Amino acid sequence: MKWLSGAILAVMMVGGAQADTIVATGDLGLVVERASGSLLLVDQSERAAISRIEGLGDLSHASLVYSPDQRFAYVFGRDGGLTKVDLVEQKVVDRVVQAGNAIGGAISDDGTLVAVSNYEPGGVRIFDADTLAMIADIPTDSKTIGLVDAPGRKFVFTLWDEGETWIADLSSGTVEINKIKDMGTNPYDALITGDGRVYITGLFGEDGLTALDLWEEDPKPIRVLPEYGRGQKELPVYKMPHLEGWARAGREFVLPAVGHHQVLWVDESSLAETGRTDTYGQPVFAMARPDGRQVWVNFAHPLNDTIQVIDTPTKEVVHEFKPGPAILHMEFTPRGHEVWVSVRDAGKVMIYDTRTFEKLGEIDAESPSGIFFTSRAHKTGL
Amino acid sequence: MRKLLAILFLFATPSLAEEVSEPDKLVNLVHQDCGSCHGLTLKGGLGPDIRPESLSHYDIDTLSTVVLDGVPGTAMPPWRPLMSEADAKKIAEYLLQGDLK
Known about the structure:
The complex is a heterodimer. By secondary structure, chain A is mainly beta. Chain A contains no helices and 34 strands. In chain B, 30% of the residues are buried.
């Protein structure tokens, strides 16, 4: 398969007759339909749905990662289900219920290991990507959040209750764990930069974020923006922000504040504050377009009908619009010319040009949440 | 902040007048928005399990106060800015009984 480099040759049954059909998956994607436990297979170039794949259990807060050949998706359901989906055959090929309550996962850089982060029982479990057989169990006695892959067959994750980050190294075949204490109070999510160097966890229990430089032999917690909310009244948080590997905008990182209606900018090398942008509500996602030139922000309930677009050089909001009720996620096309937006209560995925902000199309979906293009297969941390 | 309050009042006016919202609307709010932390099926996430069997030690009044004022020192926010006391009571009733008439 490797020689096809992303394109997949498959023999499929068409109308009862056997035909050789080439299915290229490089511009496909999956949309999580959270209430119905299904996935919508979409074609980014056609701006259309191809088919619906059902039987994935409870998909509230579900996410997924892709195999390196972009043929398979590994879907992490809230019910602890780990489901392997074949995009070419458009069906579920394997499924295990590996815990009672899960919160996302990651795939190793070599594509051979899939890790799942669990709330109940708290910890991380690691599975063979081919067979879904469990090959490692790492209990933490804490809810785990912010699980990402890191270069060198590593996974990095953080403990909500304990405020520790663990680096699990599977490069030798056995699991070696480096535990880093004092990451802060109640880390709620984390991201790793696309180069695999910086891991940043956001804190709910105190102001600020904590970074680790994974290039160091023994990474030490680096406080980022401590006391960023000082002197401001803290506002209720009706939905936790999400951190994903879209934080780099130019030479800065852009990060959502917690309890304040702002996004925060820090210099990528010094991690010192470079600015703040006041926003319409509590940011949930603050996502840099792939080129970094813009940052798109959506918001927590009850202000979740609006998107703001921030211009990176000036850090000013240059566009604001209301696609519809309950905007849960945004996904850029790989080079950023379009953004796909899931509007849950409208039952639509809406597609916009990121330069003109013109609406280019929409796709019907049942309570859509996360949108995942297969281009994520080739990005660390996604 | 001032802008936000103005917007909130705009949306919240009917419920602040102590009218009880439609049951379907409240049930949807519980699963979709409480569900952000407690899970779509309410069995827990970053926040605890809030299915009826897990809340049996609460009475309606105590539980509706938790909804309205939150739990200080935890991630549970006060919902008072967004809902009436009557709606909070209805939500407490739904959480304890598992359905709403």
